[in-house]
Amino acid sequence: MQLEGGGGVGTCFHPIETEPAVKILIATSEAVPFAKTGGLADVCSALPVELARLGHEAVLILPAYRQARYCGLPTAPMGIDFIVPIGSKTVTGHLLRSKLPGADVPVYLIQQDYYFDREELYRLNGKDFTDNCERFVFFSRAVLEAVRLLELQVDVIHANDWQTGLIPAYLKIEYRNLPRYRQTASLFTVHNMAYQGQFWHWDMLLTGLDWKYFNWHQMEYYGKLNLLKTGLVFADALSTVSPRYALEIQNPAFGCGLEGVLQSRRDVLSGILNGIDESEWNPDTDPLLAANYQVDTVALGKPVCKAALQAEMGLPQRAGAPLIGMIGRLADQKGFDLVAKVIPEWVARNDAQWVILGKGEPIYHELFKDLAQRHPDKVAVRLEFSDPLAHRIEAGADLFLMPSRYEPCGLNQMYSLKYGTVPVVRETGGLADTIVDATPQTLAAGTANGFSFREDNPLALSETLARAVDAYRRPEVWGQLIGTGMRQDWSWSRSAKQYVKLYEQIASRVRSGGAAELAPV
Ligand code: ADP
After folding, report:
1. pLDDT digits (tens, 9 = 90+) for 188-210
2. Distances from the Cα of 188 to the Cα of 49, 80, 181, angstroms
3. Ligand 1, closest atom to CA 407?
4. What's the rounded mean pLDDT across residues 325-345?
5. Same-domain check for residues 486 and 506
6. What is the pLDDT of residues 279-308, one digit of tens each?
7. Same domain, 28 and 93
8. Are residues 265 and 343 in the same domain?
9. What is the best residue among 28, 29, 36, 42 to mutate for testing ligand 1's pocket, by most ligand atoms within 8 Å of CB?
10. Which of 3, 331, 369, 454 is deepest in the core (most CB within 10 A)?
11. Whole-model pTM?
12. What is the CA(109)–ligand 1 centre distance, in A?
């Protein structure tokens, strides 16, 4: 492979022989504040910060999208150019350097303006970019080149989702034989099985990998190139974002066709819940709220936040009406179809108020807009993406509704717990791992922190919501639920410690030659 430039680069890792720190390179297609379309971006900026806080050496690498270049943080050219092969051509890229705010975590951005200087990350006007495969072949190869050009000593490359699924394959097939990569392991984390990066088979040529890998045990899925499957097959270890989802995806109902691959690799598959970024999401310090509060002062602070939210959303300021909040992508995954079936009757028969913030499927835009117009005293809707409003809903609502069909981890229910807002959720994935349904037994044991239901139907949702609203009217029970949730630890430091254990295990397995045993089938 031809290379240009790259001399005289200071390494960001300073290995000291007695230093037990793990050295992690997190490769991602999104990270806050550079670029975000979903929870992946929150995870990939919070995790390295917490790893650094725990004394480990974490570095982040992502594409230099237009959003990243103009996110308000300096992104400085490093004077390092490189060339990677893409099919029969070669493409030049450049390295930019930045830093995560408030932390000593270096961020490298792969600049290639033809691929990444676009209005949106993956799609425009509802249509995926036609060259998405090529863009992420480039990014994946660039990540491995950056390791060499930046002279990084990496114990584990932590790749995330289909956009980086080729990284474990390139590492295993092309790079492991080179001295710098011999001791480098790969961890591939799936944040959502539904997004797989599937492309027509001729895109295999773009990867530069031998056609022999295009078989149904490795990179092929029913005649197509599947980048998520590629990551799952070639990585040294796999994880997903909650223990329950790690089990669920081994079954056809949640595995999105790749359950067989996951079953065959279950020995190296783990589930680690995401954490919440408490520097951003903490009702005691959140500058976006009308009043700050903590567990001892929630009874004073929340009513102020609730009244402010009602005023902001144009709802009557009724202190005693249960206020139900919802935030998220307006998609079937989030259970908005169930909500759509339940809400008209609730609005007709119950004094609860609804505040909905979301963007997504046009059908839900129409439905919620219509409901808000017909019931302005009970339903308020904002069809947009607004982080400040999300904070104010988490603080001002009494209940937070999240009846997801499936939920790999989910962040909003954890924000809700932290903000003293009682979650009502469907018992799936990370929601099942974080929310304990209020029953006489769990209330007596002091473990109840919300409400959940198992069946995927509107009746179950409606009944559970009714149970929650009933509890809202019993101040002792309600106070207990709020207190239990607010005292729990959903911080990144808890999750990051679990990642460190996993990194150490994978790295030592690869160092001791275990990677060979894990060679793809
Ligand atoms: P997913 O990644 O599946 O969309 P998560 O709950 O894991 O769902 O994370 C979604 C993140 O995006 C949360 O931080 C949530 O608050 C935020 N979010 C989603 N939709 C909106 C919106 N319309 N306005 C503000 N924040 C939003």
Report:
1. 999 999 999 999 999 999 999 99
2. 19, 27, 17
3. 3
4. 92
5. no
6. 889 999 999 999 999 999 999 999 999 999
7. yes
8. no
9. 42
10. 331
11. 0.91
12. 24
